[in-house]
Amino acid sequence: MKALVTGGRGFVGGNLIAALHARDVEVEELVRVGSVPSTGKVRSHEIDITDAEAVTRLFEELRPTHVFHLAASNIRSGVTAAPEEVVRTNVLGTHAVVEAAAKIGAQCVTVGTFLEYGAQPNALTEDLRCEPPEIYSVSKLAGTLLASASGRRGASTVALRLFTPYGPGIQEKRLVREVLTKARAGLSLELTSPTVTRDFIYIDDVVALLIEAAERAGEYKGEIFNVGSGEKTSLETLANAALEITGSTSEVVWGGFGSVSYDSDRWQADMTKTFGAFSWRPKVSLKEGLERTLAWLDRK
């Protein structure tokens, strides 16, 4: 395998690159123009991923066998970049990457989000009609559909819909890190509602599926797969677990953090299709994952 990773400076991408290096995989990464060059084994290439011609030329030069597309204009606590930037990166950037990968015959995995589904009454299956509520999730759905369309035309491309990853390397202000950090410090935990749920999935499990999906993309051209634990966890359960493993007596202030458009009590991946296609299964429980994340925070 010769891997090319976009979004390698992010949480998931950084953990993916580390795992690929552990397997002695040669890794190239695409980074934004002006980014700090990599100092490790990975070779960095500055590029505007929305420049389709430049992306194609670089792919033809590097000839990766496997492409992991994680670069995105993201959302945090309901806040995104300007709409134009969101659409450029998440739609045009994804189009450029999947088309360039197809031209050189690389196996390609794109990473979308559970937010593409929008509000639904039950566990989320990949064949649901998606109803994304805002520009970020709309743009991510467009990227997933572009990847799927490329696969249906014969490219070895699959699209993954990622639920809520957490673990070592998670960025500041992300939910799990905030809860653990504040609980450890004895600060109040200001959260939206005890009934809001997430489907949490530990980062090592995410990375393992990314790699298997890339290796087997040729078998599932154009298919879309959920990446979650298959279990919904309420914020109340998360808060209680954080308090327990930190030994904290922090107060939980419900309503202390404003709700966002995608808050729901029904975020849960239906993993039937993913489990049927891959040998992968999530291995790390929420409790163990939180303990590992806390140990990482303690080392920082």
User: What structural class do the secondary elements suggest?
Assistant: alpha/beta
Overall structural domain count: 2
Record field, number of beta strands: 15
Classify the beta-strand content into a percent band.
Answer: 15-25%
Order of adjacent strands in the largest pleated sheet: 3-2-1-4-7-8-13
In CATH, what is the class of the largest domain?
Alpha Beta
Terminal-residue CA separation: 32 Å
State the major sheet.
Answer: 7 strands, parallel
CATH architecture of the largest domain: 3-Layer(aba) Sandwich
Give the CATH H-level superfamily of the largest domain: NAD(P)-binding Rossmann-like Domain
- Low-confidence segments: none
Cα-atom radius of gyration: 19 Å
- Integer average pLDDT: 95
Order of helices and strands: EHEEHEEEHEHEEHEEEHEEHEHH
The DSSP helix count reads 9
- Looking at the structure, the CATH topology of the largest domain is Rossmann fold
Globally, the shape reads globular
